[in-house]
Amino acid sequence: MKKILVLCTGNSCRSQMMHGFLNTLANDKAEIWSAGVETHGLNKNALTYLKEIEGIDISNHTSNLVDEYADIDFDFVITVCDHANERCPIFPSTAKKLHHNFSDPSKITGSDLEIKKAFAQTISELKTYTLNFIENQL
Residue 6 above 80 pLDDT? Predict the structure, then answer.
């Protein structure tokens, strides 16, 4: 079973949503962790919209610091934002590092509809990336 870490700045939104997709779509091919180079707590809109749009419940997730997982020998480390990619620690493993900068819907301001559209767009991009990752890497 592969070990995968999804890394973002605050482990509150994008990394949490990809963690949810990987847990749901990898069909027991991998163990999944997510973390941040900082911790910001779970984003309530990420919880709400991922469940509403995709039926994936991440309410039991916690926002964790990447240092908590220093002893795990990951097969893959996926960074989902440029900031985390730049600050990603060096793991003492042969982990393959992958990076894609997804837009951060938690930074959107505006009406509830505009915020929901931003989350829907990022959720769609995360799902497409995750399906491609599973098909080509696992």
Answer: yes
Catalytic residues: 8, 81, 88
**β partners of residue 77:** 5, 97
The pLDDT tens digits of the residues spanning 55-80 come to 999 999 999 999 899 889 999 999 99
Number of domains making up the chain: 1
Residue 100: closest CA among 4, 3, 6: 6
Calpha distance 66→137 (Å, rounded): 22
In 3D space, the residue among 35, 23, 31, 34 whose CA is nearest the CA of residue 2 turns out to be 31
| Stated pTM of the model | 0.91
Write down the pLDDT at residue 27.
Answer: 83
CB 5 within 8 A of CB 113: no
Structural domain boundaries, residue 33? 2-137
List the Cα angle 122/3/65 in 5-degree steps.
65
